[in-house]
Input
Amino acid sequence: MVIVDTRTPEEYARGCLPGAWSMPGGELVLRIGELVERPDQTIVVHCGGRTRSYLGAESLRRMGLPNPIVAVKNGTMGWQLDGLELERGASRWPPAPSEKSRARAVEIAARVAAEDGTPLVSADAVAERWSRRDRENVTLFDVRTREEYDAGHVPGSIWVPGGQAVQATDDHMAVRAGWLVLICDGFGRSIMTAGWLKRMGFPHVAVLEGGVPAWQRSGHPLETGEPVATPFGFEAARRVVERVPPGPVGDAVVVSVDPSDVYQRGHVPGARWIGRGRLELLIDRAAPDTHAPVLVTCADGVQSTLAAATLRRMGYAAARVLEGGLAAWKAAGLPVETGPGTMLDEADDVVQKPYERGRAAMEAYLRWEEALDPRGVSPHALLPERPADPRGSR
Output
């Protein structure tokens, strides 16, 4: 059998079924042919729970593959609840798609686009729509891999791999009735993703015909790398906050304002954690003396710069920021501390995954999710009871 994990590569590396390949949901149409050798070979799809494995399995069925296709019940959580061990740190990625796989993806996508009525729009039409973004809600999703996106993408597009575009749409698109244009290197991956979004009820979903290559052929420029979102007030904060390079911190009180889960995955040794939203209320737990030197950190130096500016307005005249944040600290080859460290507030700023909170949380989550499935409910349970008709009908 071939086992594929349809989550993000990061989730896959944290724990997958032994022997599984990393194949985020949007990549299935393009890459599954590189792993399947025979039409009788079973394809096993899994995620952390249920949703993305269902989506992946149904996408494979929609491709018209002759193979038996199954989803692992309750994913990695079900695997662990049954007392089985996950594989940690896996890094298997399928080979680059062959010309045969690419041609097959185009053929499937053309059929799916026709079945779903998904519009294919030209590069010029997308550019014209994007130019009206100050008057209309327009979102561009690039559903390729991170590496492809970094190498060159349509300016303004957001990197959202296909499976995540369906699983976590509301993380990236705030207005359901806005215009949503999906982009890949042709239209195979974007068409399959668009099909799910249309089924979810998004009214204005389209695909850039020909993808990034067509955008270039039309004479439009590309961006490279990943755009950095600069929050309002950041430049003003940089003007008033002293920035220090990675290195010895001396007697400074180091305060991290990352989300609590990010802090626990890695922070400057000795850093104390305070949630950014409660910094003003709790800073005295870390530095009761406003004259004390305070060094504020975060993952990339953005939120910490804003936080340091806040502290200066509160009277912490010696508040400074670690230039470049933890990323620069790591790049300098300095040690990083992991784990809970010194947390000066309750870590209630993020919702932990069920598998991060133990068996009871996993069981409760799966019970809740199973109850969403109407197939598990008797149709009569959805209707109010009525007295039996004396003539023998209801």
